[in-house]
Amino acid sequence: MTTPVDADAAGLLAAARSGDRSALARLLSKVERGGNDARSVSEVTHALAGGATTVGITGAPGAGKSTLTSALVREMRSSDVSVGVLAIDPSSPFTGGAILGDRVRMDEHALDGDVFIRSMATRGHLGGLSVAVPDAARVLDAAGMQWVLIETVGVGQVEVEIAGEADTTVVVVNPGWGDTVQANKAGLMEIADIFVVNKADRAGIEETVGDLERMLSLRTTSEWRPPVVQTIATEGHGSDELWSAIQRHGVWSRQSGEFERRRSLRLDQELRRVVNALVAAKVEELEAGEAWHQARREVAARNIDPWTAANDLLA
């Protein structure tokens, strides 16, 4: 059964596709609010999405991800492609909103109509990713952005979650990484399609690149060998090489079938999350009703077991 399309969301999407940045911002705000607002946006954007390529940029805090992202956007724009950026920030303990202000650090792109940057709060989500990120990326896609960059806050090994939301995953490290390579080896080897050693003008660059190359020589699970790109993001050095590496990975992933495999898995995972959310909402609804309290009394009195009671409630 089809659901009625939300007229407000549909109107905002039409405006966003015509270049109205305010409408695009309002759509993303709906997504962040969740609930019926997010659902209405998903309903109008899903059929129009699928054309954009998503790139995840992740790594430890302080690795220079925001500066690197800004330099990468500059390089991508030289190829005349449109770019949307979702910068995932820690949540403010007072407002729940994003607090690092990546849009300030990327203000050189503020007047570019083909670049849209949005900071989003993690809202305490352990993976460093807001639960709204998949829908937000879909909004940018449906609005006509050709590329969507997702920059994570960087929270350690748990940030492997970014791989589930990206067609290409870039892992950023700094010189002097040293023994941390071994501590994080398993997680990083799983998610990285491209390694970037940022701040390459610092001491220890040769050792860090060597550590990564040795790690990669042991990798036997994929035909794609992640390149190690050296950058100095503050000066824009190496951003052209990074952009080339991203494009090469895109060509390989499409030719190998990896691109479609990842997207299929991503949709499966999202469907599961939505089903879980709907079930959880149904449970909350049941808890407010008399049937729930009656079931609790029957279970407490040993007149019925919890499994039977649960099945009866869901029925």
Could you explain the architecture of this structure?
This protein is of the alpha/beta class. It folds into 3 domains: 1-48, no CATH class; 49-256, P-loop containing nucleotide triphosphate hydrolases (Rossmann fold, 3-Layer(aba) Sandwich), CATH 3.40.50.300; 268-314, no CATH class. The protein contains 12 helices and 7 strands. The protein has a 7-stranded parallel beta sheet with strand order 3-2-4-1-5-6-7, sandwiched between helices. Helix 2 packs across helix 3 (35-45) and helix 4 crosses helix 9 (239-256). The chain starts with 6 loop residues before the first helix and ends with a helix. 37% of the residues are buried.
Question: What key phrases describe this protein's structure?
Answer:
Rossmann fold, 3 domains, alpha/beta, 7-stranded parallel sheet, 12 helices, about 325 residues, globular
